[in-house]
């Protein structure tokens, strides 16, 4: 197996021949990661996409419209499913089953893995790289530019805020969500509570010392999060701004950053100066 680092992205290429070798045609691709699916929809030709992740057909996990996802074959990422689609390349996130890796190696199918981006810069670089390896660097550059523009820094005072997910999970310093909060004019309060990069904030602590804005992940989806509908949160909403933040905006970087920034800026505008 050949493995190398590309462009400082943490991207790993594993195959019996280097992906950088120019193919005779644009590669036929299977994605087994919903975040990669979202990028492929904007940088690859439709005919290149042999399969996408089954998560893209789950309304709680998808980063693309369900109607769009339903137009493609979906797999759960097993070796049998992926190999049956006869791709030239499989693109995925950091975790792949060993059996799938072994099968791809035997079939001389390139495997390209991307880590979860922790910053806008990492995400933009990944988009450009996906554009390059799919044979459409120009489209990758266009999407990368749209993301960078959407994530431009907002001026003015930062409003204390917190993103609060299912079970009280909070993204802290060093996460993509933390950076997006800052760029949209908020100050992530996770560190004030003594939380780590990803940590849990009990409801009692939240109610005792709430931020000015609580972005409640899943609150917009009926039954998505029982904690978000807790009576204490409803009472808290009389004191602070509790804003629904769709769970799909938490799943990925890439084009999801554009939608996430639009939502964050909307909430920030509603707060006024």
From TrEMBL:
InterPro entries: ABC_Transporter_SBP, ABC_transptr_periplasmic_BD. This is Iron complex transport system substrate-binding protein. It comes from the Bacteria. The keyword Signal applies. Pfam families: Peripla_BP_2. It comes from Sphingomonas prati. Residues 29-235 form the Fe/B12 periplasmic-binding domain. The keyword Signal applies. Keywords: Signal. Coiled coil: none annotated. Residues 1-24 form the signal peptide.
């Amino acid at each position: 197996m050949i493995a190398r680092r590309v462009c400082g992205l943490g991207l790993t290429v594993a195959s019996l021949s280097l992906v950088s070798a120019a193919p005779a045609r644009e590669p036929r691709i299977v994605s087994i990661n919903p975040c990669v699916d979202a990028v492929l929809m904007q940088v690859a030709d439709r005919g290149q996409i042999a399969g996408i992740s089954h998560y893209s057909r789950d309304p709680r996990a998808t980063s693309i419209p369900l109607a769009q996802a339903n137009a493609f074959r979906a797999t759960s990422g097993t070796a049998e499913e992926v190999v049956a689609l006869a791709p030239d390349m499989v693109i995925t996130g950091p975790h792949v089953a060993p059996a799938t890796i072994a099968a791809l190696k035997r079939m001389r199918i390139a495997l390209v893995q991307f880590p979860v981006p922790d910053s806008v810069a990492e995400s933009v670089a990944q988009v450009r790289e996906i554009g390059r390896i799919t044979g459409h660097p120009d489209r990758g550059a266009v999407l990368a530019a749209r993301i960078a523009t959407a994530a431009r820094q907002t001026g003015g005072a930062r409003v204390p805020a917190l993103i609060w997910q299912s079970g009280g999970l909070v993204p802290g310093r060093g996460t993509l969500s933390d950076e997006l909060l800052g760029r949209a004019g908020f100050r992530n309060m996770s560190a004030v509570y003594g939380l780590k990069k990803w940590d849990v904030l009990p409801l009692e602590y939240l109610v005792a010392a709430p931020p000015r804005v609580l972005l409640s992940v899943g609150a917009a989806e009926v039954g998505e999060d029982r904690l978000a509908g807790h009576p204490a949160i409803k009472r808290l909403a009389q004191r602070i701004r509790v804003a629904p933040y769709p769970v799909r905006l938490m799943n990925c970087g890439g084009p999801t950053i554009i939608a996430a920034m639009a939502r964050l800026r909307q909430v920030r505008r509603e707060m006024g100066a």
